[in-house]
Amino acid sequence: MRPSKCLLRAFTRLSPSRDTAFQSHHSRCINQNINNQDPYRITKLRNVVQFCTNRPSSVTTQVASEARNLSASRICTKDPTLDKIIAKNGLNVKPLTVERLEEDEKDEEVVNGDVRNIDKDGLENVRRKEIEEEAWRLLRQSVVTYCDSPVGTMAANDPTDTAPLNYDQVFVRDFVPSALAFLMKGEGEIVRNFLLYTLQLQSWEKTVDCYSPGQGLMPASFKVRTSPLEEDKFEEVLDPDFGESAIGRVAPVDSGLWWIILLRAYGKITGDYSLQERVDVQTGIKMIANLCLADGFDMFPTLLVTDGSCMIDRRMGIHGHPLEIQALFYSALRSSREMITINDSSKNLVRTINNRLSAISFHIRENYWVDKGKINEIYRYKTEEYSTDATNKFNIYPDQVSPWLMDWIPESHRCGFLVGNLQPAHMDFRFFTLGNLWSIISSLGTPRQNQAILNLIEEKWDDLIGHMPLKICFPALESSEWHIITGSDPKNTPWSYHNGGSWPTLLWQFTLACMKMGRPELAEKAVTLAEKRLQADRWPEYYDTRYGKFIGKKSRLYQTWTIAGFLTAKQLLQNPEMASSLFWEEDLELLETCVCVLTKSGRKSCSRAAAKSQILI
Ligand code: GLC
Question: Which SUPFAM superfamilies match (predicted)?
Answer without folding.
Answer: Six-hairpin glycosidases
